[in-house]
Amino acid sequence: MEVVPFDVVSALAFTAALVLTLRLRGVHIDATGRLFLAIAVAIYAFVGLSNVLEHAGISTVLDRYEDYAEILFPVVFTFFIFAARSHQEVEQRRRAEAVAATEKDRLLVTLESITDAVVATDVEGRVLFYNAAAERLLGHPRAQAIGRPLSTVVRLVDERTGEQRPDPVAPVLSSGQSPAVAHPPALVGEEGRYRIVEDSAAPIRDHTGALRGAVLVLRDVTERRSVQQELLKVQKLESLGVLAGGIAHDFNNIMTAILGNLSLARIYAGPTGKAATILDQAETATLRARDLTRQLLTFARGGAPVRRPRRVGPLVRETTTFLLRGSRVRCEFELPDDLAWIEADEGQLSQVVNNLVINAKEAMPTGGRLLVQGSNVTTVAGEVATLAAGRYVRLVIADEGPGMPASVLDRIFDPYFTTKERGSGLGLATAFSIIRQHDGYIMAESEVGRGTRMILYLPATDRRPEQAMADMAAGFLFNGRALLVDDEEVVREVGSNMLRELGLEVDAVADGTQALELYARAHKNGTPHEVVILDLTIPGGVGAKDALTRLRELDPNVRAVVATGYSSDPVVADHEQLGFAAVLVKPYRLEDLRGVLRAVLQPSVSGHRRVI
Amino acid sequence: VINRVFQDSEIVTLLFTLATLPVLPVILRGLQLPGRRLFVAAYLCMAAGYVFTVVEGIIWRDAFNFVEHLAYAASGLCMLAGVIALTRAERRVRET
Predict the structure, then answer these.
(1) Closest Cα of chain B to A61: distance in Å?
(2) Chain A residue closest to B22 (CA)?
(3) Mean pLDDT for chain A?
(4) pLDDT value of residue A190
(5) Closest residue of B to A41, CA-based?
């Protein structure tokens, strides 16, 4: 049988395979494998060609070597397979190593990216790994830390006792277990620049479970602690504020009676004489008591600020200049003209500046420099403690006094904490409360021997003030009837007397229900009340807000004044929006009442006359 | 007698081939070479050809000679297919 076609096919197939083999690039087989494959294929390309030539009757030199070549084929082919296998194993190992290297890189990058300090040690407790956060927190460069015993790199100091804590990793290495109980936070870093950290240590084991070392993670909780303390401070102030506010509310009613009666007594006693002098002194003392009560109320959240757009620079400058007049303290102002406007209660803000400047002045009894700086800043959330992101006016009041140690600095905003012999301990607590109610922030920086810097942030505004109300003119009397509503009998009595003194006929009642009946009856009889003075809070009765709503149903043109000494209610700040014509702050003097009535009644009451 | 019926080289080649046959499965285990089965088929065809070339000296010379050359041709085609598979796999890897 003729077999030439098979030999031709064989020769062509092996030759083509040889060509393709020579073009392989070595992805799946290396150079050795390709060589063996090429030889194996070439052998049969050669044998096939030899057979074809033989069938063609051409005897060539190839015939002589054909048999030897065939012998080689199985061996060469086996080598090819073996080489391919070896190459595959090498590649697999290389890939595994590459994967391991990538994994290691990823782990390294992850550990480097962690914001917690991570320190790994061997079983001897020597540092093997030390991430970037550890460098920042512990202060040792990595090159210096690696290889050193952990106890020389990480020194944890007990927050309470100030003593150095034992090596946190040693028990882990000796027991092979993580500590069952978490340690309380500790301090790390250099003295004066301590950071508060929480530490946790754990053993490192290999895949067989053998202990290979330990890892220590230190989390910097300084900022978190600061915020927690801030919140604690706020909560403490709030709870104290509720108490103080309640006391001040009752106290104000008593003060209203005292101050009102003193005002009246001064009129009856005449402007001169012993009685007038005594009454003047009594009134001065009472006014001081009133200021103290107001300060207490302000601190107690009770003093919701009546915020108006204003420029902070002139206010700070005037208050500071006034307070330092005649003292040895030299004041330097750095208050640029383009300082942003703020929305603030002028009285309250003035009180803050007052407290801060007095503290600074008292810190420099032999004189010194007081620097008052103002600047416009834009903060991002978290940049300044609990302050929200936004535009602020930053005020700095810096003195050159003796400064404070950290133990004092931590407590200066606590109510009733004072370092002065005769201090009330309310000044900075009040300042803190006022600034917080203005959505601002106050902080202090101080070092012993390097003075104190009080830093205030107050939200900037684009609003501008409305036309200011004209000052109340003194000495006006009024005609008509007034309705006074207050649950406190003494307040009703003294209030009635003062209203009568101002020329008004007075109806005084204890709650809103009676007031409504009386107002309706007078309205019906053609002798309406020109003004209604409503107490903001009447326990168990109809309060000012509800009473006004019902009064407006009876008479849309009713002129109502809200009286309060405890102004936590938004009614005080928003009295105009709620329909009240004015606010009368308790305790009040005759002049205060006159000023309020002047603002409320002047446009509509005819026939008022000046007191001679 | 043997020398007259078979060539020495054919016997040696067959012995080499038979010797490698137990080794090959061991090496091939786990091998993920593209066209691996085609290469093995080519080798087995070639081994069959060696057997046939010996057998043709004993019995049915023409028939076994025919299948011998047929086996070589099949081996060549399998080898070519194997190399093509390898080439294609290599191209795919390069493209990705």
Answers:
(1) 17
(2) A78
(3) 83
(4) 66
(5) B79
